[in-house]
Amino acid sequence: MNAAGRRIVCTIAHGPHRELLDVTGPALTRYAERHGYEPMIIDRRIAPARPAPWEKIALLHSLAAEPGVVCWVDADALVLDDAPDIELSLAPARFLHLVEHRIRGARVPNAGVMVMRGGPRAVSFFERVWRARDATHHPWWDNAAIIRLLGYRLAPSVRPARLSQWRPGIGFLDKAWNSIPADASPHPNIVHFPGLPVGERLRALEEWSAVPAHA
Q1: Can you name the residues that pair with 9 across neighbouring β-strands?
Q2: Which terminus has fewer CB within 10 Å in the chain: N or C?
Q3: Cα 23 to Cα 192: distance, rounded to the nearest angstrom
Q4: What residues form DSSP beta bridges with 72?
């Protein structure tokens, strides 16, 4: 570890999502090796009291007190082999970065790819997300809690609706870092297939994994 702290890129997958990890895990490891990150790929439950999507919050909270940079990538998201170092895209003085999608007039922060700078603000933020128990079984899981905490409304159309003490600490990444079918980037660094049946996600990931770099 250098003076700036650890640089970690991480994901979690178990159960049926292990099939996705067979495709995305090696790509994540290659990315870590290219750019000097420590890969952290977890294939077991770490917070069994909550639905599986909440485990990313448990993991990020466990790492939040340490200095350094932690990049979370969902297991159904594939880091492409020509993706640059994501740390070069971070804004100064922001403790958390993610993509805000523009979809049919809505503005939707997407927690499928997040980059955290460790420190007290990150610790407090992920504690607040975890305490949002009314979102435990929301269709968007932890993403719903994050959206609300940032001052966005969830319905009828997701968009900023009130002041939030947290939003000044948030940096927004280009959608190339979390390219989804509903808001795709023409030049993605990470392609992500949320909300689809696992078999469809797997097929899409396998197709993208076969695309040569710079294609």
Answers
A1: 39, 71
A2: C
A3: 12
A4: 10, 114
| Contact by Cβ (8 Å): 189, 7 | no
Interior angle at CA 70, CA 67 and CA 71, nearest 5: 160
* C-alpha count within 13 angstroms, C-beta hemisphere, residue 68: 18
Tens of pLDDT, residues 103-146: 999 999 999 999 999 999 999 999 999 999 999 999 999 999 99
Mean pLDDT along residues 74-98: 97
CB atoms inside a 10 Å sphere around CB 22: 14
Q: Give the pLDDT confidence of 168-180 residue by residue, as tens digits.
A: 999 999 999 999 9
How far, in Å, CA of 30 to CA of 36, rounded? 10
Say if CB 131 and CB 183 are below 8 A apart. Answer: no
Q: pLDDT band for position 4 (50/70/90)? A: confident
Residue recorded with tokens 């939030």:
164
- Cα 54 to Cα 64: distance, rounded to the nearest angstrom: 15
Q: How far is CA 3 from CA 7, 67, 103, 118, in A?
A: 11, 9, 40, 13
Distance from first CA to last CA of the chain, Å, rounded?
A: 35
